[in-house]
Amino acid sequence: MKKFSLLTIMLFLSVSIFAIAPPSIVQAAFKKMYPKASGVAWSQDSGYYCANFVMNGFTKSVWFNAQAQWEMTQTDLVSLDQLSPTVYNSFVAGPYASWVVDDVTMVEFPKWQAIIVIKVGQDNVDIKYQLFYTPSGMMLRKRNVTYMHDILGPSTFL
């Protein structure tokens, strides 16, 4: 019985040591913005606190700086079906329409317009791009993410 208790305590301590707990001001700012968020998991990303959660059926990630200022929110739209007709029509009329869509993400900012990011690749070819669109359907840029971990954190947009 003692071994079980000691093992349980050691496991609890090891888990709590590695858990990311943002400052209370960051947690309060998050709860104010997303009071109905569920399944929240915190991490750190390049000096930002990032909350990953589910809301209204969508997986979201939100970044706050250490002063609890909102930097950006990323919503995983999963497929082209969730796009506005303007962005959808721009994509299907563009040069990557025949490529395989791997992911569709909307990124929102406090001071800029939202950006839609469509990740595409080709069958049997090891190449991946992220295509960045405005809500009006204009393609801003593309980014080769073939050999990158393609998280869309705040540093992507600096």
CATH architecture group name of the largest domain: Roll
Strand content: 35-45%
Helix coverage percent of residues?
10-25%
Shape: elongated
> What is the number of strand segments?
8
Total helical elements: 3
Average residue-wise pLDDT:
87
Strand order of the largest sheet: 1-2-3-4-5-6-7-8
Helix/strand/pairing category = alpha+beta
Contiguous uncertain segments of 5+ residues = 1-18
- The end-to-end distance, rounded to whole angstroms, is 55 Å
What is the number of domains? 2
- CATH structural fold name of the largest domain: Nuclear Transport Factor 2, Chain: A
Strand/helix succession: HHEEEEHEEEE
Q: Which CATH class of the largest domain applies here?
A: Alpha Beta
- Report the biggest beta sheet as strand number plus sense, adding barrel if it closes: 8 strands, antiparallel
Q: Using only CA atoms, what is the Rg? A: 19 Å
Comma- or semicolon-separated keywords:
alpha+beta; Nuclear Transport Factor 2, Chain: A; 8-stranded antiparallel sheet; 8 strands; signal; PepSY-like
What can you tell me about this protein's structure?
Strand 6 (115-122) and strand 7 (125-133) form a beta hairpin. The chain has two domains: 1-69, Roll (Nuclear Transport Factor 2, Chain: A), CATH 3.10.450.360; 77-158, Roll (Nuclear Transport Factor 2, Chain: A). The chain has an eight-stranded antiparallel sheet with strand order 1-2-3-4-5-6-7-8, covered by helices on one side. It starts with a helix and ends in a 14-residue tail after the last strand. The protein is built from three helices and eight strands; from the N terminus they run ααββββαββββ. The chain has helices spanning 2-18, 24-33, 85-92, and strands at residues 38-45, 48-55, 58-64, 70-76, 100-108, 115-122, 125-133, 139-144. With 158 residues, it is of the alpha+beta class. It comes from Bacteroides faecichinchillae. Pfam families: PepSY_like. Residues 1-28 form the signal peptide. Residues 49-130 form the Putative beta-lactamase-inhibitor-like PepSY-like domain. InterPro entries: PepSY-like.
